[in-house]
Amino acid sequence: MIPLLGRYKTENAERYHLTPLALRSKSGLEFGRWVSRLADAKRMQQLTHGPAFSDNRGNVVDPRWIEMEILDRFRAIQEKTTGVIKPDVQVYEEFGISRSFRRGATTEARNQQVPESDINLMNRWRNFEKAGGKRPRMRMEDHYSDISLMIPSLLRFSKAL
């Protein structure tokens, strides 16, 4: 369970948001290992509060810097390996952290035949994006669902990747 504390989208107060992730996906992605490494790194920096991706003082790192670091690694993978990222793909033009991970995860979940209801449940953020900064209209079952009881449905998404 990945707990996030903060103010998101149209909220006007800080709240905890819980995102269940499988420890390991079908393809071998080890979410649990990487989350543990991130937590260990933050502890080593003596940063127990604040954003996950921050500098040594706990200030949020500019997402553009993170994006360039990731894209540089994608480009290196493209140059050094075959079959992972096709040679004709323009990495810096076609990828971006604002969309690629969500798009890739959703696409792979669909490829793995994760039920659309599970994909929509995991991607609840779309309701907020479509609302254009206003409070989204959500189905009653979304308002009254308890995250701790939805874990099996939410885990199906990340397990399938």
Describe this structure as you would to a colleague.
It is a single chain. The chain is mainly alpha-helical and 161 residues long. Strands 1-2 form a two-stranded antiparallel sheet. It folds into two domains: 2-60 and 112-160, no CATH class; 62-98, no CATH class. The chain has helices at 31-44, 63-80, 91-94, 100-111, 116-122, 125-130, 140-144, 151-160, and strands at residues 2-6, 15-19. The longest helix has 18 residues, at 63-80. It is globular and about 45 Å long.
Q: Whole-number average pLDDT?
A: 81
Helix content: 40-55%
Query: Which ranges are low-confidence, i.e. pLDDT below 50, for 5 or more consecutive residues?
Result: none
What oligomeric assembly is this protein in? single chain
Separation, N- and C-terminal Cα atoms: 17 Å
**Count of the separate structural domains:** 2
Global structural class: mainly alpha
Strand content is 5-15%
Shape: globular
Give the neighbour order of strands across the main sheet. 1-2
Number of strands: 2
Largest sheet: 2 strands, antiparallel
Looking at this protein, list some descriptive labels.
161 residues, mainly alpha, 47% helix, globular
